[in-house]
Amino acid sequence: MSGFWACGAGFGPHRYRPDPARPPLVQPLELQSDEELTDSEESVYSGLEDSGSDSTNSSDQEEEEDEEDEEESEEPGNGADPQVRSGDGGRLVPDEYEEDSSDEEDIRNTVGNIPMEWYQDFPHIGYDLEGKRIYKPIRNKDELDKFLEKMENPDYWRTVQDKMTGADIKLTDEQVELVHRLQRGQFGDVHFNPYEPAIDFFTHEVMIHPVTNRPADKRSFIPSLVEKEKVSRLVHAIKMGWIKPRRPKEETPTYYDLWAHEDPNSILGRHKMHVPAPKMKLPGHEESYNPPPEYLLSEEEKLAWEQQDPVDRRLSFIPQQFRCLRAVPAYPRFIHERFERCLDLYLCPRQRKMRVNVDPEDLIPKLPKPRDLQPFPTTQALVYRGHSSLVRCISVSPSGQWLASGTAPLRASHPNTLSAAPAPGLCTGDGLVVGLKNLSGLLQALKQVTWHGKGDYFATVVADNSSMQVLIHQTSKRWSQNPFRKSKGLVQCVLFHPIRPYFFVATQRYVRIYNLLKQELTKKLMANCKWVSSMAIHPAGDNVICGSYDSKLAWFDLDLSTRPYQLLRHHRRALRSVAFHKHYPLFASGSDDGTVIVCHGMVYNDLLQNPLLVPVKVLKGHALTMDLGVLDVVFHPTQPWVFSSGADGTIRLYT
């Protein structure tokens, strides 16, 4: 059907025409075919169409209204404003279909909301709806063109580039104002007031009645049916085996890396090996712009500062004084100091120094007290006089009754140790005198004579750097031999081992031990001193002491090492002589400072225990003559006594 008839009060029947500007209030019925319409349905409308009870006046009015409706329907096509009269009072409403456009159609770049970094290395920026490439706008402006545009274009400062389309967009005044507000930390909306008055219902004041006194709901007192259904479903799922309870985690043993801190590639190793850079030294009073007068340099100090090398200067700058802080100029060495700081940071390696908390008392060796180590010589008992010049050497008889001494002018005397009276002549055997006479015709001046323990052999040293400076003589056969083919250096002294067939030869820096039976070098001791002056062997034969001209006394343990077991620096000047006692654990050293130092040297039979060295007494009495002090030191064979000869021409006995 094409429409329906309606009757209004005061109007005749007229045909309803829907307004094309708005949808109809009642949707039209679907058209039905003539076959589907029954006779009853046709009779409903047939009675209305055949009724002609209305007057002709109503028909005329209907025609006039139809003409007015046609004129109103033609007005939108004539270019008038598309306005629609609303049904409530005739208010005009703007047409919502005036601008039938969408945001998607205005966008020239239809690539979509994708990251533009994908096309950063391509000449196009994406693809349009037809699948064609959308090329980027050509930008071939160099720096000069950009500068000219910046100078000539007044809107250059408000022009930005759109990353989506690649076009230049000029910001409006509202957008510029929004950017300025955001930069100042303000809100984007101008009319937004963040400090609007608010009513604080919950204050510190205690109120009589609560703010809200609404009674609790009934559902807060009864169990939740929803939770009951959830629990029922979970219980059913557990019974059916659909949900399995969590299994307890099996505790697996954890093994830690013991060497993780040592590996520099591991995280723990890097954290442990990290050493922070040391902080710079804080500025002092001399770096102030107005330092105290005592920190300012005088003219002489400035001249001396300029003449010094930069490395030797205490300060790297000259302190200056200014009237006020405004008068301080720029620091000219700022960049240089920053450069030096950078060099120190990446050129100077940093190392973590492990600080050990050690008690200073533990560093001091636990030595026994000297009074517990007696007997040892403590006081001067006798002074032997009679020599007019310095006494070079002394020797005590095996019985301890006689004492022989030698002076610089090649004189010898043997005073009695008990009477202290010098003998008029020299007592020697005929064979020995003959031997010396024969040797004196062949060799140069003798430097040292030492005897073997059995008494049949003795060795001599001459002050010569040739291969004949050391000779071994046999008194029974009256013949001499040279044990060395060539010289190993300037020999200072030689000694025979007390119980083994060893021969000790001391040069300036080393002590060589030779096996006389095998005729080979056994050991080479390094004295760690500049010039060896004297040497002595312990009666047991396993320890050796050496004195040097650089005021050092080296104790060697032959079973331990070829280097000194201990270096003693008790004397202030050169050592001239050292000696061991044959029966007591004592050894002594004489020096040019005029003193004799007696030390306790206990050697244990246990090889695992090191020797005990304790200085016990400093003996004084010799006067310095020609910068010489004590020249020789010898112990008594049986008593804890010590003899010393000096450059003052005296021999002193300490008991």
UniProtKB/TrEMBL annotation:
UniProt entry keywords in alphabetical sequence: Nucleus, Repeat, Ribosome biogenesis, rRNA processing, WD repeat
InterPro entries (alphabetical): BOP1/Erb1, BOP1_N_dom, WD40/YVTN_repeat-like_dom_sf, WD40_repeat_dom_sf, WD40_rpt
UniProt KW Mitochondrion keyword: no
Organism domain of life: Eukaryota
One of the GO biological process terms: ribosomal large subunit assembly
Keyword Nuclease: no
Biased composition, class Acidic residues, residue ranges: 32-42, 60-75, 95-106
Region (Disordered) location: 1-106
PANTHER family xref list: RIBOSOME BIOGENESIS PROTEIN BOP1 (PTHR17605:SF0), RIBOSOME BIOGENESIS PROTEIN BOP1 BLOCK OF PROLIFERATION 1 PROTEIN (PTHR17605)
Similarity comment text for this entry: Belongs to the WD repeat BOP1/ERB1 family.
Protein name per the record: Ribosome biogenesis protein BOP1
Organism: Coturnix japonica
